[in-house]
Write a structure and sequence with these properties.
By secondary structure, the protein is of the alpha/beta class. Helix 17 crosses helix 18 and helix 18 packs parallel to helix 19. The chain is globular. The N and C termini lie far apart (68 Å). 37% of the residues are buried.
Length: 568
């Protein structure tokens, strides 16, 4: 045996074999660079110091400490003269990041490790830094990933933008931001073909006086009911000594067979605990392979009822323009088979493949089933034009002549999930209807069957994945599902549907762990794990755990303070 390095070098030289790639992925992971010790700069860069600190010292400080460093920085007269403008810009930018609630981040934090809400708030801080007036800011759900405590700070930032003389337009579902708005435009009455109308407009009181779906939830004519009884379980997973990133060597118990919610302010360590420790550690235990988990001492517990683990994230369900919800849930195979059995298809010898836009046969040859033609512009963004041959319908003219119940394949793909469920039920196509039903159950009734996956939001992609698991029903292998902020982009009415779907999974014997800030979902949890008390260095502690009723009794819990109103 020549040693580990030469053994893995031999495997890498034959990486075309799948078993070698599997072997490599099982034992390969990222480690800290030994030369720079993770600082990413050459040694010489650290020879230059300002206020007795190197640049790597500064970028590794949390923003709140860094702001303190620059405020107390003492320079001689000459250096002060040179640095005057620079220090003003640095202090301004750091204060903007602190104002949007990101004072726990370090400047060298990788952008791909930031949550969606954090990325959006960095963009917001950039806009604040430009000090523009007379501008229009359009923000799409800036409260994503924000704890109610952080939302209060965000509202102050939005108001300061307005007070500078700007127009601020926010697409939002958060109740606190609605209350702070000067004017609200409520669109509905529902979604998809049942939406698209302005149902109410005016200030918060004017909206409450209307009869819109939003108003009914705000004035509690409709509400998400608190469960009468919290579930209990004898199954659990114990993580002992979690100390990755800012986690303070904590022991956490995750009950199974119920809805467990992990809460805490932004930066309190929720994602680290779940994504970096629990998920990879449990995956390795159950399947013998997975990513290298973060630092922890032991994984223990009674989880014999769990056979697989699924991390349902907000990554797109497909990057191709041909990928869509109906192909992802495997309902399109049945629809194509149905069209291939029609009389005209039999006469023309059309098979199921003729109704696919992924293979030659029935798809438009000009655009290859894309529905549009891409023209490359040398030094500008590509231009996408509707295909002149098929007029965006993606199929050959003769294929579109095949109809079922008066609709061709293009008409079917343009139906919303709600309309498609009604259509297939009316025509006694129970198998197709049953495959589409879970999409309607998770609140995606407004999405078109053939809508390109690339146009779906992260929350929609996540719910399509949830629908695929619901569609499988009560399968033998019980799974643990981990969801990262599934309420992203959801109205109160949609959260109601999401909770029904969660309960359906739990009734089938599965377990659910959710990382969440939305109080409507948190109040319906069977068990809460609250991290904090704040973010960054002052976070990473287990503040409280137990039922929502236990959490509101914990004085140190920021979540408990806001949850109390919801439970009362």
């Amino acid at each position: 045996f020549e040693g580990l390095n030469s053994f893995f070098a031999e495997l890498e030289s034959k990486a075309y074999k799948i078993q070698n790639r599997v072997m490599l992925s099982r034992y390969r992971g990222k480690t800290k660079c030994k030369t720079c010790n993770g600082k990413r700069l050459r040694v010489e860069a650290n020879y230059v110091k300002v206020g007795n600190a190197t640049i790597t010292d500064l970028v590794e400080m949390p923003i709140n400490k860094l702001a303190g460093f620059f405020n107390q920085l003492e320079l001689n007269d000459y250096d002060t003269q040179i640095a005057n403008r620079l220090l003003k810009e640095i202090n301004n930018r750091l204060s903007f990041l602190a104002n949007v609630g990101l004072d726990y981040l370090t400047l060298n934090r990788k952008s791909n490790t930031l949550s969606g809400g954090e990325s959006q708030r960095i963009n917001l801080a950039t806009s604040l830094g430009s000090s523009l007036v007379g501008s229009m800011y359009i923000l799409d759900e800036p409260s994503i990933g924000l704890h109610p405590k952080d939302t209060e700070r965000l509202i102050l930032v939005l108001k300061s933008l307005r007070d500078l003389g700007n127009t601020v337009i926010v697409v939002e579902h958060d109740e606190d931001i609605m209350k702070a708005a000067d004017n609200i435009i409520d669109i509905g009455p529902e979604a998809g073909t049942f939406g698209g109308h302005v149902v109410a407009t005016g200030n918060y009181d004017a909206i409450l006086a209307s009869d819109s779906l939003t108003a009914q939830y705000l004035n509690e004519k409709l509400k998400i009911e608190v469960p009468k009884k919290r579930r209990t379980s004898k199954y659990f997973v114990d993580i002992k000594g979690a100390r990755e990133n800012n986690l303070k060597n904590i022991d956490v118990r995750f009950p199974l067979g119920m809805l467990t919610v992990v809460t805490g302010v932004s930066g309190s360590g929720k994602s680290t605990l779940i994504k970096k420790i629990l998920y990879p550690a449990l995956q390795k235990k159950l399947t013998d392979f997975g990513d290298k988990p973060g630092q922890f001492t032991a994984l223990d517990g009674n989880f014999s009822n769990i056979k697989q683990i699924e991390f349902v994230d907000q990554n797109p369900i497909g990057r191709s323009s041909r990928s869509n919800p109906v192909t992802y849930i495997k309902a399109y195979d049945d629809i194509r088979a149905l069209f291939s059995k029609q009389k005209l298809s039999t006469i023309r010898n059309y098979q199921a493949k003729h109704f696919s836009f992924n293979v030659d046969g029935g798809r438009c040859e000009t655009c290859k089933g894309e529905g549009e033609v891409t023209i490359e512009m040398q030094f500008m963004a590509d231009v996408h034009l509707e295909c002149e041959t098929c007029k965006g319908k993606r199929f050959k003219k003769e294929v579109l002549e095949v109809t079922y119940a008066g609709k061709n394949i293009d008409d079917i793909l343009n139906l919303t999930i709600d309309d498609a469920v009604t259509f297939f039920e009316a025509n006694k196509q129970t198998k197709i209807k049953n495959k589409l039903q879970p999409l309607q159950d998770v609140g995606l009734g407004y999405v078109a069957l053939g809508q390109s996956s690339s146009t779906l939001s992260g929350g929609e992609a996540q719910r399509i994945k949830l629908a695929t698991f619901l569609g499988k029903g009560n399968n033998k292998d019980k799974a643990l599902f981990i969801f990262d902020e599934p309420t992203t982009g959801l109205h109160f009415h949609d959260i109601q549907k999401l909770l029904k779907s969660f309960n359906a999974l739990i009734e089938n014997g599965h377990s659910i762990i959710v990382v969440e800030h939305n109080l409507e979902l948190i109040k319906c949890a069977d068990y809460i794990i609250d991290l904090g008390p704040t973010g960054g260095e002052n976070g990473g502690n287990l503040v409280a755990s137990g039922t929502p009723e236990d959490i509101i009794k914990a004085k140190a819990s920021e979540t408990g303070k806001y949850l109390k109103d919801k439970l009362q």
